[in-house]
Design goal:
The structure is a homodimer. With about 450 residues, the first copy, chain A, is an alpha/beta fold. The first copy, chain A, has one domain: Luciferase-like domain (TIM Barrel, Alpha-Beta Barrel). In chain A, about 40% of the residues lie in helices and about 15% in strands. Chain A has 14 helices and 13 strands. Chain A has an eight-stranded parallel β-barrel with strand order 1-2-3-4-9-10-11-13, surrounded by eight helices. A two-stranded antiparallel sheet of chain A has the order 5-6. In chain A, helix 6 links the parallel strand 9 and strand 10. In chain A, helix 3 crosses helix 5, helix 5 runs parallel beside helix 6 and helix 6 crosses helix 7. Chain A is globular and about 75 Å long. At the A-B interface, helix 2, helix 3, strand 6 and strand 8 of A face helix 2, helix 3, strand 6 and strand 8 of B. Chains A, B: It comes from Streptomyces griseoruber. Chains A, B: Keywords: Flavoprotein, FMN, Monooxygenase, Oxidoreductase.
């Protein structure tokens, strides 16, 4: 048995990833804006010795509040509160490179990294959609390629800011009255296409140097960006074959970018729906599907496919003619995944909504704990994953069920740590090195 | 005895407000970036039944790291962590209207207000100085008047965002599958001079509606802004007469702006240096002065007075000719206060640095606990203050000394609450009403 271990991330969303989860009798429809809900989830994930937990984000009010719990606590704020309620688990916040000045975002992440003792991670997104753009003075979203060019420059600026204090800047010499060594402060003096940032960060270098860099876009631009910067990648894959191809491609791109392929961890999303028998699991899945309000689902699908509202029929397949991925501005790879899923399984709109309602394109898998563990082990050992992004359909119950029933199996098979051991940074949990400071020159060997 | 009670705010800064505090044997020169330091301070302030605690901020690395502890934890992040470590005390963060998009700041404050159970406050600043501007793509700071015009529009946008959900938007009707009432969502659709913000906030309306609005600029623009928006004002006043004039002026301006003068609380800053005798207090003050490194102090003073570096002599008075306040871009009222202090007391540069080293223009007062309580009572009862911004010279010891020795006297005199009682929002602690939602029309009386 290899000593290679699974990396598990808990993707926390409202009362669960299934859009109808809030309608179940057990669910609290106010939970998504209550700290206690997230504290319970974080502690459950920590009981399951997960590497990290994760919050998605976009700076806009999504969709229609009639449909499902809307609004959220801002991720960096919520994760800071969770940092004080946990001890080991990593805390990964989504934040956009399109709508926040880099100086502000760099200092907030550095602060969270200090407060959490080195447990901060950043899921870097460029934020698709005109709705977000219109909250920040723009009429339309920047083009996909431009968003990624801006993201790359944003990263360069942020890395300069996080390195702007050397680790040993603070002298704290009370006797002479000299607190710090000014020669170890390196103002970025950055003048680029999108940003000009002159001065050093006003936060000392944090325990990890900077947060774990995570990425989740699977478009061509997204994969190129991941190969260059990302240390962990979240991805939506429906089949083992597709997941293996994605995994091999991303590792190869990372090598081509001059990096160690071990320094990028690939985590496909999985929506486990558990039952003590397969039939019970499928029945649990059916209960969720039965709570979907289809008029909402049709409108969401029309929006994703960039079709006029009212153009889809619930009990027909998708139209034969659809735009190509190239013509889509927004979540390009999600678009292609959804269209291919519908074509491959010849799903009606109703069937497609049922499949997407649980995972929005992520792999939904209903089964017994053994079956879920088998699936995870297969993908993990067959070159498709370094770990998984666990996306319970219903929260908190689905996460507790995974921790209570699947985690013990994974541990028994030697695939998952049985305890955290000493305190580690998030990067250490993922088996990644602490980054060097770009301004510190390694002395030449004599 | 009136039932009117003092409002006390703990202004937390590093190892204390005195610039040399970090050099004392008792001080930890790393404390300013350690969560535990602030948790201890917050709990001490809560033991003293303070209304709130407060963090200053600017998005730049101030001055020279050689001089004193530099860098900080970002205030909204730090206060979120402190929200989970406290139960009653208000949490006031400084944030700039010049360098953050309003959508982002509005959602972070709304999130903190929810997480803290209604204890968030916002000290609104426009951020003086070219150093900050150059971290955000500008070559120089915007002019003083333009910064305030932008701040007023920022407030209007933020208030629209905080009101964009009516309080009763969430229906949570599981049976029908309707979560929220879309008719109670009000997108700002704001198109102004500085900002365009289309969509509703992605956070439901918070316990306070929005954070307590605090302001601290005492320039003409600052006072006009305070009269229109502020619910609490921090101010630096050196004499009872000046403080009375400021207090009367601000209350009159608030009435002229159509507001209740009781709905703006004026809190001058005080730097108490305590001793069991007056002589011991003065000796404690002298120890701090003896730790000042004068070359730093001269440079800071030259920067404040906008004089060339090297132009001041340590043992001479200020030059007879200095720029007028009108010619100063930046902290205008602080400039005038410092010049008037030096002229009034005929201080040498060395003497002025000694006076400013403790409070940067705020009232430094060395004395016994009785004397400090007398000072506070006089200002409170003589029309100069609704409470105080307590700025200990040394932290944590100075705050603990105030709570242990001055607070009991104020309580015995009936000037300060003896316990918090039931949980309240920050606005309730300050005796202010919860703001109405601008989009909800009060029905006409029949």
């Amino acid at each position: 048995m290899s000593s290679r271990k699974l990396h598990l991330n808990a993707f926390l969303m409202n009362t669960g990833h299934h859009e109808a989860s809030w309608r179940l009798p057990e669910s609290d429809p106010h939970a998504h804006v209550e700290l206690d809900h997230y504290v319970e989830l974080a502690r459950t994930a920590e009981r399951g010795t997960f590497d990290s937990l994760f919050l998605a984000d976009g700076p806009q009010l999504w969709g229609n509040v009639a449909q499902r719990p809307a609004g959220a606590l801002e991720p960096l704020t919520l994760l800071t509160a969770l940092a004080t309620a946990t001890r080991h688990i990593g805390l990964i916040a989504t934040a956009s490179t399109s709508y926040t000045p880099p100086y502000n975002l760099a200092r907030t992440f550095a602060s969270l990294d200090i407060i959490s003792g080195g447990r901060a991670g950043w899921n870097i997104v460029t934020t698709a959609g005109a709705e977000a753009a219109r909250n920040f003075g723009l009429d339309a979203e920047p083009a996909h390629a431009e968003r990624y060019a801006r993201a790359a420059e944003f990263l360069d600026v942020a890395l300069k800011l996080w390195d702007s204090w050397e680790d040993d800047t603070i002298l704290a010499d009370k006797a002479s009255g000299v607190w710090g060594d000014d020669a170890k402060i390196h103002p970025p003096r950055h003048r680029g296409t999108y940003f000009r940032v002159e001065g050093a960060l006003n936060v000392p270098r944090s325990p990890q140097g900077y947060p774990l860099l995570v990425q989740a876009g699977s478009s061509e631009d997204g994969k190129a960006f991941a190969a260059r910067y990302a240390e962990a990648v979240f991805t939506a894959q429906q089949t083992l074959t597709d997941a293996q191809a994605f995994y091999a491609d991303l590792k190869a791109r990372t090598v081509a970018a001059g990096r160690d392929p071990e320094h990028i961890k690939v985590l496909p999303g999985i929506v486990p729906v558990l039952g003590s028998t397969e039939a019970e699991a499928r029945a649990n899945e059916q209960v969720l599907e039965d709570h979907i309000v289809h008029r909402h689902g049709v409108a969401n699908l029309e929006r994703l496919l960039q079709l006029p509202l009212g153009s889809l029929e619930l009990d027909a397949e998708l139209p034969a003619e659809l735009p190509s991925e190239d013509a889509v501005e927004g979540a390009k790879s999600r678009y292609t995944l959804v269209v291919e899923l519908a074509r491959r399984e010849r799903l009606t709109v109703r069937g497609l909504i049922g499949r997407l309602g649980g995972g929005r394109g992520h792999l939904t898998f209903a089964g017994t704990p053994e079956q879920v563990a088998d699936k995870i082990e297969t993908w993990f050992t067959q070159g498709a994953a370094d770990g998984f992004n666990i996306m319970p359909a219903v929260l908190p119950s689905g996460l507790a069920a995974f921790v209570d029933h699947v985690v013990p199996i994974l541990r028994a098979r030697g695939l998952l740590r049985t305890e955290y051991g000493p305190r580690q940074t998030l990067r250490e949990r993922y088996g990644l090195p602490r980054p060097a400071n770009q301004y510190v020159k390694t002395p030449a060997l004599v």
